[in-house]
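Convert to structure. Protein one:
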Amino acid sequence: MSIKLVYLASPYSVYKGGREEAFKLACEKAAEIMSMGYAVFCPIAHSHSVEKYGMDGAIQNGDWWLEQDFAVLRRCDELWVYMMPGWEKSYGVGKEIELAKSRGIPIEYFYFDYKTKTY
């Protein structure tokens, strides 16, 4: 039995609550999806901590991170877009959707509850 690998896209730098809150919400959503029986790659959860602790906070540009993330997205079974505030303005989320569409990777969209900050 093979477990599906889901790529969880969400906004980061354009999220109105800031990067730390975007990181926290992405981690919570990734954990929730994992508890549903999926394997998850969440670039915000992965990249935020690597940049903050592994690169001494040296902020890399978005294209640099997309190169890292796309190497994983190309291998994923599905792209799930977490529609947090700002997702439609996010350069990275837009590029992730473009790549998934070009490769025929199925895309799912999940709404964000503005009041409770949850799906």
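Protein two, convert as well:
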Amino acid sequence: MNCFWQTIKKPIIGLAPMDGITDPAFRAIVDEIGQPSILYSEFVSAEGLCRNPKRLLRTFISHKTDTPLIGQLFGVDPIAMQEASAILLEKTSISGIDINMGCPNRRVASHNGGAGLIKQPKIAKKLIEAVKQAITKSKKIIGMSVKTRIGYDKIVTESWIRSLLEAEPDAIALHGRTLKQMYTGKANWEEIHKASLLAKETHTLLLGNGDIQSLDEVNKYIIKYTPDGVLLGRAALGNPWIFQNCTPDIKIRIQTAIRHIQLFDEFTPTANPLSLRKHLGWYIKGFPDASSIRNTMMKLVTTKDMLDFLSSLSYSG
């Protein structure tokens, strides 16, 4: 049998993984409203998951859905990567495992993790093989993918993507910036297109990522650069409707923010609710008196306080 990457409808329009953002509640909201092709979790340290699976497994909690959920890991130790993958395969309902090879965080990259692996292609291949071995041992039909960038301090798309393709992942999602750029400047979709042409000669799918702001742009970029599909990241913040190309009114946005908080309580009741503040700020962007509303929300501490405040807004009824 083939894993979901081989059977999923193309082109793929998915939710990109974002650290501190794509938690269970946010994924559920995006899935309910936007209905993307795929969802990614936040990334989790493979070594950390091996040491403390009970605490870190909550990252991979999922609502009931037919949308493939991809659990993302980062690390540099193939043994830990294989062990962490085995934990995910045993303890979660994920459809795929992704290795983060694109995180620009200097603390992660300086230890060769995340985008640091771009400078360590041999280790990168060993990590891919480690995940594949865990999947084989589990006897489950699970996808294996990589999320990365076009370079570390300079563009090396061709050599880097060729190296990854030799390891035969099911899919590669490519952000069109180097680590050095972080999230500044513009994503280089010409480089993403180069990678797409390389992948076309293999069985690996190539998804593009970076700076897409609308569904119209999604369709244009798929035609021009990456026929396999794209991932949307920052454009979906406070805007799960982007996948359906619709613009909700203020009342619906407030109701969705309330639903988001309720899902947070349902899926991760022991997590710090202060992480919700940024989401609430995104939902109210462009509201009348948005600055005043945001200032109040940034002082709220509990989910009950947040729910009470949103319910009190005059246009939330």
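The first strand starts at residue 12 and ends at 15. The chain has two domains: 4-244, 250-312.
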